[in-house]
Amino acid sequence: MKRALALAVAALLSSPAIAATDPRTVPTQLPPAWQAKTRELFKQAIEIPSVHHRGQTQKVAELLAGQFRAAGIPEADIHMMPYEALPGDNTTALIVRWRSPHPTKKPMLVLGHMDVVEAKREDWKYDPFVFREEGGYFYGRGASDMKNGDVATTMAAVKLMSQGFKPSRDIIFFYSGDEETNGRGATLGSTQWRNLTDAEFGLNADGGGASYDRNFRPLGFGISMAEKTFQTYFFTTHNPGGHSSRPRPENAIYELADALKALQAHRFTPMQNDITRGYFEERSRQEGNSPLGQAIRRWLANPNDGQAADEIEANPLEVGLTRTRCVATMLKGGHADNALPQSATATVNCRIFPGVQPKDVQAELQALAGPKVEVTPDPSYIGVPTPASPPRPDVINAVKAAALRFHGKDMHVFPVMSTGASDGSFFRAQGIPVYDVDGSWGISPDDERAHGLDERIPVRAMYDDVLHWEMIFKALAG
Amino acid sequence: MFEHIVDIPTVIGRHHVPEEAQFVADQFKAAGFPEADIHVVPYHTGSATTGDDDTAALIVRWRAAGTPKAKPMLLMGHMDVVEAKPEDWSATDPFKMVEKDGYYYGRGTIDMKDGIVAITRAMIDLKAAGFKPKRDIVVLFTGDEETNGIGAKKGASEWLDLLGHPEFGLNADGGGGSINPDRSPAGFTMQTAEKTFAGYTLTVRNRGGHSSKPRKDNAIYSLAHAIDKIEAYRFQPQLNETTRAYFSGREKLEKGPLGDAMRRWLANPNDGEAADFIEASESEVGLTRTRCVPTRLFAGHADNALPQLATAMINCRIFPGVDPNAVKAELERVVADPEVKVTRNDDYVASLASPLRPDVTAAYTKAVHALHPNQPVFPEMSTGASDARPFRVAGIPVYGTNGGWTVTPIDNRAHGKDERLPVESLYDNVVHWEMMLRDLAG
């Protein structure tokens, strides 16, 4: 969910394009037999509508477990972990341990999630739960968030096992079933199920990745090492209501609309940390003398230059990286067409800059919404700010080697702060550093459709991601 | 009887209207009305915005003794109520009637299970007292007035034979009286016209996306701006014969600034400022013009995704004679945003006023004055829509002649929370209907 394609991204307006190759047309390096297996597994995974409350996530878990079983993982190391996510939403996590015959290092955790965000047939051009290949893309809900990562990590392990590869440390696969809603699985995984998941560090397939701009210039490969805190708030207004034939000046919907307009206009104070400074230093090199590059340099030189920060934040490629952001995502109001509303509620989703307490954001929202609106945090998920993970040279070097192989030397690898929150935050909070290192990629911003309409991934990005994870496993557990 | 039927949650989608229809039918049967003249008629109601339900109407025909002296008279009401959620109400469960401080609390206590009980009780009591009607008295209680009005449409068309092609109708879902908090009279009204009920939807679509990357274009924010414009907008003031008669009656009761404004407006219908002043009064809301108000909001599909769709239901009460399509065009001009689409939710046509009938006016006035000698009586244009509309369109005049009363404005809670009825009002209403029936069918 809470994943944005953590693509670092760039100015579309700077220097004229040098004729570059469309990365979607470069042939994949994955052998055809493995392409077929990957495609089939991806198709099956996408076509299971593992949306919360539909009771389908278990089927994804069985699908992935079947792959590991067939590749030779003993039954005792495959754990189906049923749990209740939201009330009435019974889901499952899958934990698979690929044992090292002679471990020389502490285990390594590979994270993913099997659930997807709701997608409605009427909103999409085609059925979101029917897998489709068209124009060099795979389409379907979960194509980029993140059944691609489930398939790539599983398929890479299956492929390595078929080649007789023996890891030098246990590799533990942890696929949760409610990342998009509650993160209950990751909470359990990082605490109660720790005997099955304890590891030196974690690699999350729900983030990372490379991107290109529309002129096919490489924009970079971001490894997410920190993430904003996810917190949803409710703006609620109450009113005695009444008959709609007799409107009154005070009206729950009007009061809510005023608060939404105030929210739309509000901007939180810009902030920086070590990870975002590292990120913007890389970006300033990429941007050169473009207006964005100049704004980044001004802001790095003077973190109090709010105007520079605003200019950066306003760029579609940098949204959310300079401060806390909150946005209205849902509305519900009224109880009958012909009655004045007795209550109206807006769901306001916030991504809070690391280190800022959610209760302080709540106070700021309450101040802007005014006394007629009640601002409360979503009680079903209280965000906990998490520490940034310390940079690990072995992880960074493994990613650099893979990026060089699939994208060439111009694809820079650098740290990023993720604006989405993922299962990684729960493990970070419990002392396991997590790095988002998935190898899929896309054209920015056209392919950034996670949670949105007509979600997709380039066909080659899916196939090469299997090889990417194969390299990562060999490098870190070889 | 009142407690029993208030406790039945006859909200659309909950499938309880047939139970209430059967209960009321059983009361008539027990009182000796012949089974052949009591019909519980099941029917289906539904629309895209209200959902569906299997509901029912109750039709009871009390035949004239001997050769009828006139065509049948129709008594109308509806058994369904608007949704009510226990968590929105202050202290009581909307579907568990409570008597407290001289009031009955519960959903439907004023809209309009009081009328169902008053008509039923009055007929049963009259029969027990040996009253023999000189014309057929036909009851039609519908089961979806608050939503789709399909029962009334059928009543005014395919059930007309069953109803005996009535000459006119008396609707318990209209009329009634008010007293001020100081107990001084605020008037009784007989409903002869009603505004046209029409629903509209504002729809904003957007490509959506991930909520961690907000964009300037956002379906919810566009909708909020459109709602804000509707909040600020006022339609052109209008007067017709019914409202002119109503305000002529009302101004005599109002000595203060409100009365002055009524007098100014009656003298000069172009005095928009006077009309605005009247419209702003809680007791006169909706009587000077078309009014539109948002009643429901829906947007978004996940808390962590930018909304792909945001909609608002706009409920309009249109001045009689104004075409609902013209109001749609006006809303489009007000919103003035190509991102915000305005569509109609129904195909209702403009409603008509019923001509005043001296016999009905006299009977109503007499019944009111018997119980409330100080209360003036005048015709009224109802701002709410009722089952009367299809009958009026079909050429059967309908008069809202209920005899209940409330304290204005504090008891104006129909469709809202903590709906309540003064205990005394319920009993007065039974006597009121008995007098009306004796006069008009005796």
Strand content of chain A: 15-25%
Tell me the series of helices and strands of chain B, N- to C-terminal: HHEEEEEHEHEEEEHHHHEEEHEHEHEEH
Whole-number radius of gyration of chain B?
23 Å
Helices of chain B, by number, come to: 12
Helix content of chain A: 25-40%
Distance between the termini of chain B: 26 Å
Oligomer: heterodimer
Mean pLDDT of chain B: 94
Tell me the span between the first and last alpha carbons of chain A.
31 Å
Order of helices and strands of chain A: HHEEEEEHEHHEEEEHHHHEEEHEHEHEEH
What proportion strand of chain B?
Answer: 25-35%
Greatest interface: A-B, 68 and 69 residues
What structural category do the secondary elements of chain A indicate? alpha+beta
The biggest sheet of chain A, with number of strands, parallel, antiparallel or mixed sense and barrel status, is: 8 strands, mixed
Number of helices of chain A: 13
The whole-number mean of residue pLDDT values of chain A reads 93
Rg of chain A, alpha carbons: 23 Å
Could you describe the largest sheet of chain B, including whether it forms a barrel?
A: 8 strands, mixed
- Indicate the overall shape of chain B: globular
Unreliable sequence segments of chain A: 1-17
Bin the helical content of chain B: 25-40%
